[in-house]
Amino acid sequence: MKVSIIGGGPGGLYFALLAKKQWPRWDITVCERNRADDTFGFGVVFSDETLGAFREYDRPSYESIRRSFAYWGDVDVVYKGRVLRCGGNGFCGCSRVTLLKLLQERCRELGVKMRFRTEAGVEDFPDSDLIVAADGINSGVRERHRGHFKPSVDLRPNKFTWLGSTRPLDAFKYFFKETERGVLLAHCYQYEKDASTWVIETNADTWERLGFGDMDESRMLRSLEEAFGEELGGHKLIANRSLWRNFPTIRNATWVMGNVVLVGDAKATAHFSIGSGTKLAMEDAIALFDALREEGGVKPALSRYDAQRREDVEKTQHAADVSLAWFENMRRYWGMDPLQFAFGVMTRSKQITYENVRLRDPRFLEDVTRWFASTVRAQGFDVDVSNPPAPMFMPFALRGMRLENRVVVSPMDQYMAADGVPNDWHLVHLASRAIGGAGLVFVEMTCPSPEARISPGCTGLWTEAQAQAWKRIVDFCHAHSRAKLCMQLGHSGRKGSTQLGWERMDYPLESGNWDLVAPSPLPYHPESQTPREMTRADMDKIRDDFVRSARYADAAGFDMIELHMAHGYLLSSFISPLTNLRKDEYGGPIENRLRYPLEVFRAVRAVWPEDKPTSVRVSATDWAPGGLSEDDLLALARAFKEAGADLIDVSTGQVVPHQKPVYGRMYQTPFSDKIRNEIGIATMAVGNITSADQVNTIVASGRADLVALARAHLADPYFTLRAAAWYQHSGQFWPQPYLTGRDQAYRLAVRDREEWTAGRLATKPPSHEVKDEQAKDERARKSAGGSGKKAA
Length: 792
Description:
disordered C terminus
């Protein structure tokens, strides 16, 4: 088979050597536009996992590479004069030029042809069976065939430049530097003896104020050397075509065009803050090689590569997007205590969590947890700072409501009510979760009138009978648990009069429909009912309905009340520009769109007891073009804070059916983070949060104050009690009939945690083995030098 590779970077070279080793008779040629030793940047970074793959797939190149690597296990966050060190991170760095030379040497050894200073395109290889486009971030192949690959480029706002230095480093270091004109950040790591990479990053405003746009390279170096003088310790910065750039996040609709396939940065990019493009390119090479080996033919192999590798790449890109967003918004966190700030840096991409940090560096995690406990103790809670519970078990207060822990049962529609009256199903459903240990239990969205219901099965609170039924449930939960109960009130708006959740959700009833109202006469689906545009009289009636329900909720004994202003229901429909097309004082700019939701909130707050908290649930984004903007979101949060809201319950989407959410672990948490740390109001994070580990990570890093879980509680009402056993938290309340079960759970959890920890530490990280091997090499060289013999 004839294989032509366009691009002689690490990805193209590594695929060439793997393929040639496996199929020696293949005719493989690499064409590179630059000279053999031309390269941007200085060093590259690989993780333990990637090192292990290199060792598995080609031991000779791995052995050559490992002798040239610098290794470190520590990450230092240098912030406001403090050095916060987290150990146990297995990474290694290598000179990019050295890596290229080693891969080129291995390719020559195997018989791969290499042509440098050769421009090439797909049309130059009409007789090739496979063409691999590994021509980098500015891929000519991708750009000449844009119509097929359909690339998209998201040019990020921060500015960065890639520099080097002779300053030796004993850890990966983040130097956060505050200047009178803004914050600068240096991402730094050693890649060989007396050589380190320094990636300088800042936001566009700081870059402009510091005048970097008007500086030539020498002036820029002097300016940065002055800014980072203490960190450089007398060493200089070195440039290598070190232009200021904006990072482009590149995606392609497809990576395959006939027998042509994209790899590396030509295919997709991921921000440098979670690793190098070199790492991803070489992993692409492995994935493409595996696909060819397993499928045999080119066409099925490329199809397999595009399908299977895409999932891994998209996960990496998602983590990179979250990571880069943290650095783009680092000013948001500038007021944090250094320990929380450092923990936020370590966990920013969601790939590293609270428990993962424990495995890496228990002492660092203990320091973070003790600090967090001290802040809770300072708020008047009796917390043992010397031996604190995990963050999820730290108490929290909103007005006069004091929660035992930070775990919340999300409001989940059950569609089991008759005429709005909750029944035994709701008693069992809610009481079991309260007994299960959660600090706060939300009831499902409950409607203030019959016509406000989503479906005939929705609960209501417009009659005395409904209030008494709710009181029965609340009293039981208060009597047998320490959970607090929150009533969530909402009006369905244009999404009402629909089928039950397990039928055709959001589609109209087949019969028995009732009239709908909304800010604008827009049906949810084309086949949905068209709502009537609300009049001022409608607004008055619905506002008064909410007030009546709030009075009933207080009489029923609820500890907290929330107004549902998310997911495209009535109040949400006023807020979103996609669903509010009014031309009067209730439509147009965000201030007008908030006018009626704020009116309803203020009316409810006025009748709700002063010592009981209120919250609002919002859709922080519509996940659709033309929807709620970031500025709108901040204006919304600020307005409700000023109106007296104690908490923002931060959800997203479900406003329009053509939404395109970006799903992932804890995918809505960044919106909670934004509101909490920019507006300064307590928030609750929701959305694909599934584990106690994630709850701890979110709370300890300051991304939210409370964490709500839905499906996790459907599967396990006793989620919190199980977590208490896992963390050996003796302060968690268990009902007396369950105490013997508690004792057994705590005993078994000790064994389970030991087995879990042992399983994760069983395999010695490759970088540590490589360090051992490198040390042996060094001893051998010294021994040979002392005896006059040449080292093997």
